[in-house]
């Protein structure tokens, strides 16, 4: 029998994204982004995002069906991001997915956006995904997770106490007037900079921090240090600041991720979320994991930032594991904890 076909819908932030997956094969990955409508505000405006989702939903589903050469009747299950995210944006996806599943008479899975970020790796690498440690670094979240079973058992080992890693990239890019989103801009500017030019602080890495909160992050001290440096250094070298800032973030993320692998005895690390697209993080992770004997997996950069394939991938894993679908009517949950994989 052929593997079930799952359509995934993602609308938690500014991307209206549809993915279609059969088993572990990606058949379509359509992304309509409203990022340009938000750029002049320096961040995502919820009302604008919700309206853009409404406009983009039907054309995006149609385009995904065209790309995969399928019709709606071929879909065996529907998965949708139920949270966390912007509530108005999530609602558009949940309402669309519920209508679609009900109309087709197919099961519906309301899944966690963060678990979906981690699960997308299952489309690119052939080995079983779990058990693994996951470093989840996006615009809204930064956490270290122990994933015993991606379809139901995720434990939070630590998280950021203030800004998310991606948020730190976005804020520093804003003060340096590099545009929004800031991550890709800093990543490319840093390539021509010297990462050891400025010794910016590494948050929560004193010996006491390692005792009390080994797997938590903090980026606010770094943000302040960069802002002070910019103010007090007229004619500063932009590329050096970008590279040195990025080095601090990457260094801390990898120190803590590798410590989590060692502490848990799980020699496997998945890095996921938008910041996992960062070229320096990918390089440092590769080098340090190799040295530590940890099996490292990072999805391709296009699958790290928000997309529908990751939602379809988690849906596909839920179907394969025989998990029960979600109830036909459920609410989007803007604060859905990472430990709740599905509703
Ligand atoms: O996962 P994602 O697409 O959306 C959320 O769920 O938040 O992550 C978006 C975040 C933004 O903060 C963006 O600046 C950051 O990921 N990002 C990057 C890179 N590409 C995206 N950060 C650093 N380097 C990159 N290349
Ligand atoms: Zn995300």
Structural overview:
By secondary structure, this protein is α/β, with parallel strands linked by helices. The chain has a 5-stranded mixed sheet with strand order 3-2-1-4-5, sandwiched between helices. A 5-stranded mixed sheet has the order 8-7-6-9-10, sandwiched between helices. Helix 2 runs parallel beside helix 3 and helix 5 packs across helix 6 (182-190). The relative contact order is 0.19. 43% of the residues lie in helices and 19% in strands. The two termini are 28 Å apart. The protein contains 12 helices and 10 strands. The model has no long low-confidence stretch (mean pLDDT 96). The chain folds into 2 domains: 5-121 and 304-320, Nucleotidyltransferase, domain 5 (2-Layer Sandwich); 130-298, Nucleotidyltransferase, domain 5 (2-Layer Sandwich). Bound molecules: 5'-O-[(R)-(carboxyoxy)(hydroxy)phosphoryl]adenosine and zinc ion. Zinc ion is lined by residues 113, 117, 138, 273-274, 306.
């Amino acid at each position: 029998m052929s593997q079930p076909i799952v359509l995934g819908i993602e609308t938690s932030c500014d991307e209206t994204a549809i993915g279609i997956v059969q088993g572990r094969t990606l058949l379509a990955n359509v992304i309509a982004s409203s990022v340009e409508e938000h750029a002049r505000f320096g961040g995502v405006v919820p009302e604008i995002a919700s309206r853009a989702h409404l406009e983009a939903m039907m054309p995006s589903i149609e385009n995904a069906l065209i790309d995969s050469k399928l019709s709606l009747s071929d879909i065996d299950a529907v998965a949708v991001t139920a949270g966390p995210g912007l509530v108005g944006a999530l609602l558009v996806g949940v309402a669309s997915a519920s209508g679609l599943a009900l109309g087709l008479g197919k099961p519906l899975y309301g899944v966690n956006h963060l678990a979906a970020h981690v699960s997308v790796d299952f489309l690119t690498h052939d080995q079983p995904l779990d058990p693994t440690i996951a470093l989840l670094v996006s615009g809204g979240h930064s956490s270290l997770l122990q994933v015993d079973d991606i379809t139901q058992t995720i434990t939070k080992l630590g998280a950021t106490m203030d800004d998310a890693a991606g948020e730190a990239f976005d804020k520093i890019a804003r003060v340096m007037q590099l545009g929004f989103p800031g991550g890709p801009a800093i990543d490319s500017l840093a390539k021509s900079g010297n990462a050891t030019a400025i010794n910016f602080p590494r948050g929560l890495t004193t010996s006491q921090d390692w005792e009390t909160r080994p797997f938590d992050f903090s980026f606010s001290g770094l943000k302040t240090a960069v802002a002070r440096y910019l103010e007090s250094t007229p004619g500063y070298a932009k590329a050096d600041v970008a590279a040195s800032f990025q080095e601090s973030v990457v260094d801390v993320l990898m120190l803590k991720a590798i410590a989590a692998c060692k502490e848990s005895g799980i020699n496997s690390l998945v890095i996921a979320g938008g910041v996992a697209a960062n070229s320096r993080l990918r390089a440092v992770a590769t080098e340090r994991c190799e040295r530590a004997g940890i099996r490292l997996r990072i999805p391709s950069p296009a699958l790290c930032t928000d997309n529908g394939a990751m939602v379809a991938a988690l849906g596909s894993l839920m179907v394969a594991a025989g998990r029960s679908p979600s109830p036909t009517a459920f609410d989007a949950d803007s604060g859905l904890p990472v430990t709740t994989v599905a509703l």
